[in-house]
């Protein structure tokens, strides 16, 4: 929310829109937007984002509504949906996140957009300016209320959240090799049982059976590359290889989207990694340039 971040710092710096017009506008993050007469955006609540935070962060969470002028600077119809989602979260994980006057803040970023437009020489009617001036005033009031509340909150131990995410990443990284190990164990158990039945039904002597003492175990040996590689995991871009006479199969990733990919801060051997959208093989739509497959595959 680059617009909100830029607006927030200006709300804290200028008490009124007139002061902001005559002062130097602060822009912390480069942002681009289009001005239209009316703009109705449907916002989807992404409760999944909370799963990346440690449960101890629940008392430091606030909800900011950044386009609240149309709902008289109140949450409006969003509040029942938000409370339902938080209720589901509490029932599912026993984590209660409060949604009340202390944690709900209503702003309107249109006043900041108006300021940016004024700085670019775009003219507005007096009625428009009066509306945006009132919007700015209310947003400043909410910004100060938010800061006052945050000052009462104990700092969150960021190391707890980092530890949580590190643990989650380890689980994700281990899921694939653990699944493969499980498959190999089942394949080897099947081979052992076959040998046991063979011995039970055999009329060979002990000396002759000693030749069957050792069981040949089957596996595919991976070859480690000297560089990272982006491959496609779509079912149409891989080859399934059967292990011996078993029902166990392994995937061979034969489709190479980017033969040598040196993206920074990308966990390896992870399927559906959103960071791969930055791979040179992906176009602006997030699809592989060569094979037209989404980066999530």
From TrEMBL:
Residues 225-290 form the DUF8206 domain. It comes from the Eukaryota. This is DUF8206 domain-containing protein.
């Amino acid at each position: 929310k680059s617009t909100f971040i830029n607006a927030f710092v200006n709300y804290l710096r200028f008490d009124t829109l007139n002061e902001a017009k005559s002062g130097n506008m602060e822009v912390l993050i480069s942002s681009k937007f289009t001005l239209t007469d009316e703009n109705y955006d449907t916002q989807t609540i992404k409760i999944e984002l909370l799963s990346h935070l440690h449960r101890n962060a629940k008392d430091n969470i606030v909800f900011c509504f950044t386009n609240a002028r149309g709902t008289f600077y109140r949450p409006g119809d969003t509040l029942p949906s938000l409370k339902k989602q938080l209720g589901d979260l509490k029932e599912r994980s026993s984590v209660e996140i409060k949604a009340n006057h202390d944690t709900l803040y209503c702003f309107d970023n249109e006043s900041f957009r108006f300021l940016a437009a004024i700085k670019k020489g775009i003219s507005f009617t007096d009625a428009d300016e009066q509306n945006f001036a009132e919007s700015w005033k209310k947003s400043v009031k909410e910004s100060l209320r938010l800061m006052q509340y945050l000052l009462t909150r104990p700092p969150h131990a960021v190391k707890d959240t980092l530890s949580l995410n590190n643990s989650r990443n380890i689980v994700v990284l281990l899921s694939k090799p653990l699944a493969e190990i499980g498959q190999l164990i089942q394949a080897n158990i099947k081979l052992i049982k076959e040998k046991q039945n063979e011995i039970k039904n055999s009329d060979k002597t002990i000396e002759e059976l000693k030749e069957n003492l050792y069981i040949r175990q089957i596996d595919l040996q991976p070859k480690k590359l000297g560089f990272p590689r982006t491959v496609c995991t779509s079912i149409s871009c891989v080859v399934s290889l059967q292990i011996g006479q078993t029902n166990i199969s392994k995937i061979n990733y034969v489709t190479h989207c980017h033969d040598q990919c040196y993206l920074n801060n990308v966990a390896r051997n992870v399927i559906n990694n959103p960071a791969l959208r930055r791979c040179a093989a992906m176009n602006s739509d997030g699809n592989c340039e060569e094979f037209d497959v989404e980066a999530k595959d």
